[in-house]
Specification:
Blueprint: H1 9-29, H2 37-43, H3 48-51, H4 53-76, H5 78-97, H6 102-130, H7 136-162, H8 169-172, H9 180-187, H10 200-220, H11 225-247, H12 256-259, H13 262-292, H14 297-303, H15 306-324, H16 327-346, H17 354-381, H18 388-417, H19 421-441
Helix pairs in contact: 1-6, 1-7, 1-9, 4-5, 4-6, 4-10, 4-18, 5-6, 5-9, 6-7, 6-18, 7-15, 7-17, 10-11, 10-18, 13-17, 13-18, 13-19, 15-17, 16-17, 16-19, 17-18, 18-19
């Protein structure tokens, strides 16, 4: 792949703008549709359960495609993978907007998720290509913002769009950003590609393992416990077969060489724990605020804004700190602050003032911002530059696995917890944040 020496400052700036656009769109794509599901259901005269697949299809496709795409980076090149992924995402957005039936919309979302996977894998890896080593943490700070802010503000953005337009515009807003593709092709450095085999067996087992697991998570939320359990168990079974097959493959999709690096492995586990904590909080907070404080959805949206806002403020600071200090210490402090913030939310006063909620969520945002950039930097720089695609694939996979695990626990906890489900989710989120502190701290040894 191209090296940083061949880039001018202007080229680096334009390449990063294009990368941040793609990563921001892929993150927004997983969060912007939720609020419109009732409208989509009515538009197609379908059941709410069927409409939920507009969300599930995107997450399913992105999760299944991450590792296969990462394994093809060597032969296709980061530049080609990123540009193709962004083109697929934008074209699928157009298809979503004009889908005549719900099955067609779900199919377009599957294609959109595949494009998002290509953008996520190649976009993250490209940061290491365009920045010199001493500045790479600054690049990952920008990536942290591009992923976290659209994902957190997705419902608010969707509400603003739906206040003036119909739900297809949630997808049409992506289309103009397709102009970033020719700009990226012109500015990005050329790739050095290498021949690699196409592992059809591994791809099939990967799809079955992660696909059944994600589908099981979605089924868990519908109340079909036995079916959901069967799907999740089947997913874990195929995951075992996938790992066994990969261990015998000469060029595996699973980066076993990177997993032999303790810094990389512990960073992956830290990421899984942290994103599980994040989704447990994001899903449960609206229930806590709207039911407990009797706030409207719009008020709740504004009240949770301090979390992403403080993440945006903290991420660049964390990037500068990561240049001079070990990632383990910064991440541990950040996740400890996240745990404290969630714990303080659990023990809110009976009739809290809005300020009581805002400063607690701001603390969560500061903690998450401190964690994200140093952890991504540690994971992406633990191995050699030539393995950036594989590292990026695992980086994105860890994020989706954490979200899926957190989502499964939300469904389970709300099914068992009754009126206390939201608080129980925050307790679980606190526990995952503390587990992240433990795995992060272990990187010192």
């Amino acid at each position: 792949m191209g090296t940083v020496e061949c880039l001018t400052a202007a080229q680096r700036r334009w390449v990063m703008i294009c990368i941040l656009i793609g990563l921001g769109l892929s993150s927004l794509g997983s969060a912007i549709v939720n609020i419109a599901l009732p409208n989509i259901s009515r538009s197609f005269a379908s059941s709410d359960a069927a409409a939920v697949w507009v969300v599930n299809a995107y997450q399913l496709s992105a999760t299944v495609c991450l590792l296969p795409i990462a394994s093809l980076v060597g032969s296709l090149g980061l530049k080609r993978v990123y540009a193709t992924g962004l083109v697929i995402f934008v074209l699928a957005s157009f298809g979503c907007a004009f889908a005549p039936t719900l099955p067609m919309l779900v199919s377009a979302r599957l294609i959109q998720g595949a494009g998002a996977a290509g953008v996520s894998v190649a976009g993250m890896a490209f940061v290491r290509v365009v920045y010199p080593h001493h500045l790479v943490s600054k690049g990952f700070a920008l990536v942290a913002l591009a992923v976290a802010i659209p994902g957190a503000l997705g419902p608010t953005i969707a509400a603003a769009i739906l206040s003036v337009a119909k739900w297809p515009w949630l997808f049409l807003v992506n289309v103009p950003f397709g102009l970033a593709v020719p700009l990226f092709i012109a500015a990005a450095p050329p790739d050095v590609r290498s021949a690699s085999s196409f592992d059809l067996t591994g791809i099939a087992l990967n799809a079955l393992a992660f696909g059944l697991f994600v589908v099981g998570v979605g089924t868990l939320g519908t109340g079909d416990g036995p079916i959901a359990t069967g799907e999740i168990v089947a997913g874990l079974f195929f995951l075992g077969l996938f790992v066994r097959q990969q261990l015998q493959h000469p060029v595996p999709m699973l980066p076993f060489d990177l997993f032999r690096i303790p810094l990389f492995t512990l960073s992956v586990w830290t990421s899984i724990c942290s994103y599980a904590a994040q989704i447990l909080a994001y899903v449960s907070l609206p229930f806590l605020l709207e039911t407990g404080m009797h706030l409207s959805a719009v008020q709740t949206g504004f009240l949770v804004t301090p979390w992403p806002l403080m993440t945006a403020v903290t991420a660049p600071i964390a990037g500068r700190l990561a240049i001079r200090h070990p990632a383990s210490g910064i991440c541990s402090v950040g996740l400890a602050l996240l745990a404290i913030g969630l714990l303080l939310m659990i023990f809110l006063p009976t009739a809290p003032e809005k300020w009581d909620v805002a400063w607690r969520l701001a603390l969560c945002g500061i903690g998450f911002g401190l964690f994200q950039t140093p952890n991504n930097t540690a994971m992406m720089t633990a191995g050699p530059l030539g393995r950036s695609g594989a590292a990026s694939g695992m980086n994105a996979a860890a994020r989706y696995i954490g979200w899926s695990l957190g989502s499964a626990l939300v469904s389970l906890i709300f099914g068992l917890g009754g009126d206390h489900g939201a608080v129980s989710c925050l307790v679980a989120g606190t526990a995952f944040a503390l587990m992240g502190v433990a795995t992060s701290s272990a990187r010192r040894f």
